[in-house]
Each structure stands twice: as structure tokens, then as C-alpha cells.
Amino acid sequence: MDVCLQNVGKIWPDGTPVLDSVDLSIASGEGVVLLGANGCGKSTLLRCMLGLESISRGEIRMGEVSLTRARGGELRRLRSRIGSVFQQFNLVNNLSVFQNVLFGRLGNDGLLRSLNLTCSATTRDRAMHCLERVGLAHLAQRRTDHLSGGQQQRVAIARMLMQDARLVFADEPVASLDPRAGREVMDLLFEIVHEHRLTVVCVLHQLELASEYADRLVGLKNGRVVLDGKPSGISPEALAELYVGEDLADDTDAMGGVYAYQ
């Protein structure tokens, strides 16, 4: 699924501008990492693309659908194709790993058909396949709050796989993990993205990881896109400039965990 932003602007209720005339086109299957200092607008931009924040002007399109104008069933169908990977995991801690993965079908099947005791054998088989893909099939019946942080993020990725999303948004997906677990999660996430030819838009602070995993880097400063290109074509000096003299208009925290739109 491709994404197109045209003249997107966002102003907070107190009149503070946070996004200013953002134009951005992301091709289907492309992996884009958003970079910039705290307050540059990158998390707000991601929230706007997810539909969690309204925009003040412009348009956001995903595939053939305008997120800005979609309503009702059209909006629900669009959201069912969008997965999210965030810093926190948004798992139901007192339920099993298996049940949490089944919840990836909530947006398509509804709550009743997403429960372990009422879902079809086909759905249960698919959930186990997703857990096998992230290396956690042997922990299917364990409560998620008994897992490590890296394991919980893998459960959340399995839930996104269960959703069968075509577009994935990620906000600081490894910020709460130690470096080794973080790299393992990034390896897994981008392996799955490439296997399924998904489009991914990711916010990262770690420049080394951004340059290693992204097909394309997009840098924001004061709510505007000031850098856009392949990692190999962007100098360290240009990246460093993103973090010089930045305003703090966007004080948005990282958004949560791997979450399938429901």
C-alpha cells in the first residue's frame, strides 16, 4: 500500500504549529525511517498518518482511499489493513501469548470470533503459524506478563502478522529494549516486512539502526521535511544538522506498543 501526503499541516489548539506543508510520497513496499530531534514533529506526523490526530489542512491518502475524508465502513476497512509497532507493547498481560495473537483478527472478525474458545480451527492454526514465525510457538500458553521485553515485542509482531496488515507504522519500536534485544527485534520486523512486501514507516532515534534498515531516510526540522534520500546518499553532517537548534513544539511521547488497528 502506498502513502501520499499533500500540504499536510497541523496546529495545536493553542495556536502552536507542529507540521508545516509536509509533502511526502511513500511507495508500496518501501521502508522509510523518520528522523529528527525531539519536538521536530515526527511522532505527530506518524499519529496523523494513523488517524490518531486530525490534520489542520492538506490530505493523506493510503492506496486509493483518502484517510482525511474516509468515514464509516470505508474507514474501518482501511484501518484493518494498517498495523502499528510502538515502544510499549499494548498486550493484555493476564492473557496468554496465543490469545493476544488471536486479537490481531479483532478488526476483521470482531471480539467473539477472536476468542480462543470460539474462533475457527483455521484461525487458531494461523495464530500458531504467526507465533512460529517469531520463534515463540513454545510459549503460546504462557501469560504475556511473564515474558521478557524482547519476547513481548515479538508477540506484538505476531499479532500484527495475524492482522494481515499491508502498511506498518512504528514509533520507537526498540526504545524500551536493551541493544541486543533491540537489534533482534529490528531484524525480525524488517525480515517480515520484506517477506510480505509491506510498506513501513518507522520513527527511530538511533541513527546507526536507521541507516542500516531503511530504504529511505526522511528528516524533519521545525515541522518541515528538510532531508529525504537513500542512507548511502546522506552525509553524517546532514544528519547531524537535524539535531541542531530544534524547537520543542511537538512534545508528543512515543505512542505505545505493537498495536493492530481495530
TrEMBL record:
Q: How does it sit in the membrane?
A: Peripheral membrane protein
ABC transporter domain sequence ranges: 3-247
Instruction: Provide GO CC annotations from the record.
Output: plasma membrane
Q: Where is it located?
A: Cell inner membrane
Give one GO molecular function term.
ATP hydrolysis activity
Q: Which InterPro entries match?
A: AAA+_ATPase, ABC_transporter-like_ATP-bd, ABC_transporter-like_CS, ABC_transpr_PhnC, MetN_ABC_transporter-like, P-loop_NTPase
- What are the record keywords, sorted? ATP-binding, Cell membrane, Membrane, Nucleotide-binding, Translocase, Transport
Assign the protein's first listed, main location to one coarse class. membrane
Which SMART domains did the record assign? AAA
Instruction: Return the protein name.
Output: Phosphonate transport system ATP-binding protein
Q: Which species is this record about?
A: Marinospirillum alkaliphilum DSM 21637
